[in-house]
Amino acid sequence: xxxxxxxxxxxxxxxxxxxxxxxxxxxxxxxxxxxxxxxxxxxxxxxxxxxxxxxxxxxxxxxxxxxxxxxxxxxxxxxxxxxxxxxxxxxxxxxxxxxxxxxxxxxxxxxxxxxxxxxxxxxxxxxxxxxxxxxxxxxxxxxxxxxxxxxxxxxxxxxxxxxxxxxxxxxxxxxxxxxxxxxxxxxxxxxxxxxxxxxxxxxxxxxxxxxxxxxxxxxxxxxx
Length: 224
Fold this sequence. Notes:
It contains 9 helices and 5 strands, in the order ααααααααβββββα. It has helices spanning 2-5, 11-29, 43-60, 62-65, 69-79, 86-94, 97-100, 103-125, 188-223, and strands spanning 132-135, 146-154, 160-168, 176-183, 186-187. A 5-stranded antiparallel β-sheet has the order 1-2-3-4-5. β3 (160-168) and β4 form a beta hairpin. α2 crosses α3 (43-60) and α6 (86-94) crosses α9. 31% of the residues are buried. Residues 2-12 and 28-38 have low confidence and may be disordered.
């Protein structure tokens, strides 16, 4: 439990992650509803469109801007998470321990990791005010299966660099899914991997599940 609750970044990075990191994950995934496209989008177009859509919805909903965590959590779960390759995110974050886990343990890990990100995201959404996202052109070949999309969050203070790893997905309307996020040089999945590895080494896969469950319960109590 201690390793999961330990500091992720230095003070400045923790502040930006809390306010923008998880929100940007949601922003890059977007809120899309029942929409279809005739052809896959370019990855930077995908990020720009979904970011704009999400910001418009969030800023128009006063209950979200005032910090209604329950409503935000439902929004994320129903409208954002379907656009994530969540199994890849979880298995990558858990690392070698994923292969040690039973199917039931893998299912629990995905559930608890999902709740962890939803709660983090829900707390960050209320910080949105006048920030804007600048999406940089993608430098990639037309047949690349995985691409990094680089963006900046611009508002008060220095711009915050945010990068997104996306993969081609034939079953996704846009043609892409998100599987990792970089905040100021720290990739989210790799960061959690080091923490989770310590927990698994100390207490096994079940110990990691217990720690994630306890943290999610504590977050839920705090949000109330």
